[in-house]
Specification:
With 215 residues, the chain is of the alpha/beta class. Helix content is 50%, strand content 12%. It is globular.
């Protein structure tokens, strides 16, 4: 019998509890893993390669906005990720889906709606709140930027996310277990793919993606 494995990544214990309650009994045999920060979410995904789904809060300690989604999406391409956020405007939902989320659930949703969203994604659908249908992108430059971000390798996505957190090359090298020379090579590749001249400009580009998101 298949064990349904769901990773719940949210820094608020009470909301993790609510999500856990919503997804209980979706499968006859079930394993629910909880993570309170981004690195714990990464570890859970790495340690459970057969996981069926991750519910990911956009605002988590250790990562800013969509950087976490991009990094996880690149590192674990076979893991469906549903964004769970209190910020549920159309632009945020659209960008989450554009950057590879399999669904979007608003934190204002009731348990039945959360359960329906999780069920839909597990069945292979892309899920978004009916009351907040994704809007068309007002800034054409964002579409180009999203396409460029999609060309980053898993390691480049992680490096960019760390640049966004303000980490220095030597700190990134320590976190990733690689040399500073390797990090510099990744940074150079990121600048080329994003068509910018400096790491500061790369971080500014990343912040444009996160702009609609406030929580």
């Amino acid at each position: 019998m298949h064990t349904l494995t769901i990773i719940i990544a949210d820094d608020h214990p009470l909301f993790r509890g609510a999500l856990k309650q919503a997804v209980q009994n979706l499968g006859e045999k079930q394993q629910i893993l909880e993570a309170g920060d981004f690195e714990a979410a990464r570890r859970a995904a790495r340690d459970n390669p057969e996981a069926d789904l991750m519910l990911l809060d956009l605002a988590m300690p250790g990562v800013s906005g969509f950087s976490g989604l991009m990094s996880l999406r690149a590192e674990f391409p076979g893991l469906p990720i549903v964004i769970v956020s209190a910020t549920d405007d159309g632009a945020t939902i659209r960008r989450a889906l554009e950057l590879g989320a399999s669904g979007f659930i608003s934190k204002s949703s009731g348990l039945d709606d959360i359960r329906a969203g999780v069920n839909g994604v597990l069945e292979g659908d892309i899920w978004a709140p009916e009351a907040h249908l994704p809007v068309s992108e007002e800034d054409p430059g964002i579409n180009e930027l999203i396409e460029r971000l999609r060309t980053l390798t898993p390691q480049q996505s992680r490096v960019l996310a760390m640049l966004g957190e303000g980490l220095l090359n030597k700190q990134i090298a320590y976190e990733l277990g690689v040399s500073e020379a390797t990090v510099k090579a990744h940074v150079s590749a990121i600048l080329l793919k994003l068509n910018v001249d400096s790491r500061t400009q790369a971080v500014i580009k990343l912040s444009k993606i996160n702009m609609p998101m406030v929580a």
